[in-house]
């Protein structure tokens, strides 16, 4: 990815791409007065693609959204509620998700198959449909061209900050925008995407090409983060392309396709890192770069094993330069490792070389680990493949939040 291929739009949002509006409101699903129901709407049916959790207990809304996209590869609206996941709720939960889709379609004057729905919050509780129905009826009045912030607030649960970004790329001399918004703070160990992600673009891209690109980039971004090792029942990322900008269709044969891919990658990676940084109770972002692996999949597996280690996460929280926890995680990753050639650095501090300890300044290393970004570099010296993963530290606050999540 090279920053020269695109520019970041500082004040950009999910509605910056042409044809999109968004909104959010409070319908009573949350105890606070924060928004808990939101929607993204496109002026035209948009090419759509999605990736979904591989958790066996897939929430009802995800099945409904997959069904909608499956009709003709298009969506014109995505409705989302927070405060209730509508997961593990049986036949009634599926009926409620379908009613949520139907009600949104009626309120916006759209065909049902052009509407997707998703939910986030507590698992195992039925949606209070009276509140949902009432909120959906009011959704059209909340729609604004600058409604990105309202939408972002509507999708938050334990998140402390909104997560949104936008990039601009020139395609055939015309500006194209790609934007994204996401939520996620806990139950983050994706096996497809991450908690909830929404992307919009005004590029002209077919659904099949969009799906291939999203699936490919998901593997190196959303699938490379972990907060607590738990894969949610509701994980989903959906992208909608209005096609209202540019002067021709984009695909892998287009000369500007690499630039579009770079911008798409940036948006996904930004959102993934923002989720990891905002992990429940987290005080710092941990980035693990694994180099010299025999295969890319091996590098990815080792990176995720390191950032998923409770011991590594705890050591980062305590600013303890305990490289033994890192080498132990590498060894149990199930990937090929030469036990005599591993190097480990904490930032600029070399702590292990050729699998042997080296003398380093403990105080300076500890001071480095107190920062908001901790980078762990691992070189296996076995091949040319590499991967990067992101996570966060494990704190007392994480336990407090999740010990009282339903109360």
What is this structure, in a nutshell?
The protein is built from eleven helices and 15 strands. By secondary structure, it is an alpha+beta fold.
What does this structure look like?
It contains eleven helices and 15 strands. It is of the alpha+beta class and 407 residues long. Helix 1 (60-72) packs across helix 2 and helix 7 (296-308) packs across helix 9. It is globular.
SSE blueprint and pairings:
Layout: E1 7-8, E2 20-25, E3 37-52, H1 60-72, E4 74-84, H2 90-108, E5 115-122, H3 129-142, H4 148-154, E6 163-171, E7 174-183, E8 196-201, H5 207-220, E9 236-241, H6 257-277, E10 285-293, H7 296-308, H8 310-317, H9 323-331, E11 343-346, E12 349-353, E13 356-357, H10 362-369, E14 373-379, E15 385-392, H11 396-403
Parallel strand pairs: 4-5, 8-9, 10-14
Antiparallel strand pairs: 1-6, 2-3, 3-4, 3-9, 6-7, 7-8, 10-15, 11-12, 11-14, 12-13
Helix pairs in contact: 1-2, 2-3, 5-6, 7-9
Largest sheet: 9 strands, mixed
Number of E-state strands: 15
**Number of alpha- plus pi-helical segments:** 11
Shape: globular
Strand content: 25-35%
* Mean pLDDT over the full residue set: 94
C-alpha Rg, in Å?
Answer: 22 Å
Residues in helices, as a percent range = 25-40%
Note the gap between the termini. Answer: 43 Å
The arrangement of helices and strands along the chain is EEEHEHEHHEEEHEHEHHHEEEHEEH
Spans of 5+ residues with little confidence (pLDDT < 50)?
A: none
Derived structural class: alpha+beta
